[in-house]
Amino acid sequence: MQKQEKILKPKGKALMGIFLPHTKNTAEFETVVMPPVAEVILPFSQHIGAPAKPVVEEGQQVFVGTLVAEAGGFVSAPVHSSVSGTVKKINPDSVVITSDGHMTPDESLKPFEVKTPADLAEAAGRCGLVGLGGAGFPTKVKLSIKEGTVIDTLVVNAAECEPYITSDYRECMENYDDVINGIYLIKEILNIEKAVICVESNKESAIQKLYEIATDTRDENDSVKLMRLPSKYPQGAEKVLIYSATGRKVPVGKLPSDVGCIVMNITSIATLYRFIKTGMPLVQKRITVDGTAVKEPKNVIVPIGTPIKDILDFVGVDEDYSEIIMGGPMMGVDIVSADVPLEKRNNAITVMLDAVPDVTTACIRCGRCANTCPMSLYPAKVDSAITFKQHDNLNSLNVNYCMECGCCSYVCPAKRPLTQTMRLAKAILRREK
Amino acid sequence: MSKLLNVASSPHMRHPDTTRGIMLDVVIALLPAAVFGCVIFGWRSAAVLAVTAASAVVFEYLWNLICKKPQTVGDLSALVTGVILGMNLPSTIPFWMAIIGSFIAIIIVKQFFGGLGHNFANPAMTARIALMVSFPAAMTKFVTPFAVDAISSATPLASLYGEATSTVSIKEAFFGLQGGCIGETSAFLLIIGGIYLVIRRIINPIIPVCFIGTVALATLFTGDNVLLAICSGGLMLGSIFMATDYTTSPTTNLGKIIFGVGCGLITFIIRQFASLPEGVSYSILLMNILVPYINRITEHKPFGYVKAKEGK
Predict the structure, then answer these.
(1) Which residues of chain A make contact with B117, given a CB cutoff of 8 A?
(2) A239 vs A242: CA distance, rounded Å
């Protein structure tokens, strides 16, 4: 009985959204560590903001965790070598490192002491941490809270609402200690009153596991809570999550901190804690490799910068695949070639046999897009405004509220690419400004 | 050089429902009532249905051909219009009138306004009204079920509101053993079709429930027989299959309530006070015209909406 009381129900009334097939095939498999590959490519821009600036020279010897490029501005993140070896080439947008196969860690790496909120932001900066849920927003910027802003809730995002992806789930099953210590550390340093860990209801074992955090003895005031969210896409979207966790609505153009919240992905928290504990920056990632073309889907720990084709060779995919998606099928980005490297912000590779056919009919005005949009927009009206070149209407249709979750395209029976149209509409507004 | 990959904008998966699938579901839901109409009114009803369905599809095909537009008969929307139109006609109607009906529905009401999704009124229903106004005698020549010869009979609706003496029991009206248009007699089978559509999530039950509920309540106040009022005439067919037409009904739930209640009230007023025995078609047409306004006043605000600053 007491157990049930500890698990919260969402505060905000469930927003619209859609029920997707979960296809979390990899949920109960141990993560596999991928052996080092011959060469890694480390792009300077694996985050939102200014690209990093290289600080190494060609031919220089580097180790796992050696800084290869420093942050190129405030909104930026440094890049560290993910293998030990030598710098082969410095391209305008990336560094290529040849691996010696030993994965020797850099000896100069030391645990980082964190005492003040500024230290925490600095740690996130040195770690090269970015939002690991997919957005890639530098965590240092998120944690640099302005003087006078009161943050009372830390929202821990373990929703993982995309189909296929289980990497956050495996993180909290396998690196449970880092997760729990990370949450308490951040809460303590930033002096945040309470923390809410949000998990979707389809992850029962994670809920059991995380429940231990909520009942931990350190938690004297019972301030760390677990929340069971409905398994409904897009629960993990920042604004939706804050609404569920606190009942607060983030106004358009405002940040979570404006309503007293910080949202952090559960893997980001664990990674930050590992950096503070060991000094090892973000150099490897757990990614889910799944999709219709993957024979044996699994979670793999891969050095950042590993070319996608090497990962696919390691996992084994059907040769007839026709689409590679970085991320999940709802919000992931298609890549043009398997030669590109894995980036920090990627959490999954979805390889599909068949791409979505682009056969559309006229809009039948069924209203499904408007009735599923979590932001309560009217994608079909935007579609019509674009078709008839009525660009003046786009502002009053509030296209800038759109977070491109993909629900509208997903439900459309006429198969119209509504999410793409929303992106186009935003681009038109930007251009006309 | 690695292989060529498909590159598209996200999302990379889609719900299995398609326009064609939805239209097919509507046809399936209409079938029980249509087949029942053919059983009780004889072979000629089957012929009328075949003529309206085929001519609707042919008109759509020809329109696309003449206007050099992509062919759209494959989405089955013309077939749905044709079947619904046929179900709204008496079995005695001359075939040429049925074909005129299909022409009005497909060419004038649907294609002149831009085709699928752009018509402001339900095509089949507007065609029925046009035929009703043009050929009132032929449109009200109803047959008694299982009659050997075409004997015109008063519909229960006419008797309910005091124009003739009622001979139909509630049971007969509910299961469809009454005079009327081909597809409108059996409330039971139409409700089954409606439940199928609701379960398949094709239609939202708000409009039919509000529509029928309003008529029932209003009839209750005037003291007439409520069950007979909702089981006779075109109320079931109209509320379940025509008022729920996506294109001509409001988007939001509040809008759907306003639409359903409005349809019900107008139906009741026409039945009760006007000289016409039936008001379902006119009520839906009138409310169709109001849909853009209903949509405007019930528009939901975006999540986290802040009012735009003045003078921007």
Answers:
(1) 362-365
(2) 5
| pLDDT 10s digits, B164-202 | 445 677 888 888 888 888 998 899 999 999 999 999 999
Q: For A314-334, what is each residue's pLDDT tens digit? A: 998 888 888 999 999 999 999
Inside any domain, residue A313: no
Per-residue pLDDT tens digits for B130-141: 999 999 888 888
Domain containing residue A186: 2-28+110-278
Measure CA of the first residue to CA of the last residue in chain A; give whole Å. 57
Dist. CA A293–CA A288, nearest whole Å: 13
Helices and strands (H and E) in chain B: how many:
14, 0
Domain count, chain A: 2
8 Å CB contact of A329 and B117: no
How far apart are the C-alpha atoms of B226 and B216, rounded to whole Å?
A: 6
Q: For chain B, how many structural domains are there in total?
A: 1
User: Would you call A337 and B2 a contact, using CB atoms and an 8 Å cutoff?
Assistant: yes
The per-residue pLDDT for A217 is 64
Please report residues of A whose CB lies closer than 8 A to that of B303: 15, 239, 243, 249, 374-376, 401
Domain assignment of residue B11, yes or no: no
Encoded tokens for B249:
């009904």
Shortest alpha-carbon distance between residue A83 and chain B (Å)? 25
Q: Name which of A350, A413, A420 is nearest B18 (Cβ-Cβ).
A: A413
Question: Residue A325 CB: number of other CB atoms within 10 A?
Answer: 28
Residue A60 belongs to a domain: no
Under-70 pLDDT residues of chain A: 1-6, 12-15, 213-221
Confidence of residue B310 (pLDDT cuts 50, 70, 90): very low
Contact A408, A369 (CB under 8 A): yes
Tell me: pLDDT of B105 over 50: yes
Q: Give the CATH number of the domain where residue A150 resides.
A: 3.40.50.11540
| pLDDT tens track for B247-268 | 999 999 999 999 999 999 999 9
Q: Which residues of B touch A334 (CB under 8 A)?
A: 5-8, 10, 12
Q: What is the CATH number of the domain that holds B70?
A: 1.10.3430
Identify whether B2 is part of a domain.
no
Q: Which of A428, A249, A237 is nearest to B306 (CA)?
A: A249
- Which pLDDT score is estimated for A180? 86
With CA atoms as reference, the chain B residue closest to A20 would be B15
Centre a 10 Å sphere on the Cβ of residue A369 and count the other Cβ atoms it contains: 29
Domain endpoint, select from A221, A244, A278: A278
User: Which residue in chain B has the smallest CA separation from A339?
Assistant: B2
Label residue B312 by pLDDT band (50, 70, 90).
Answer: very low
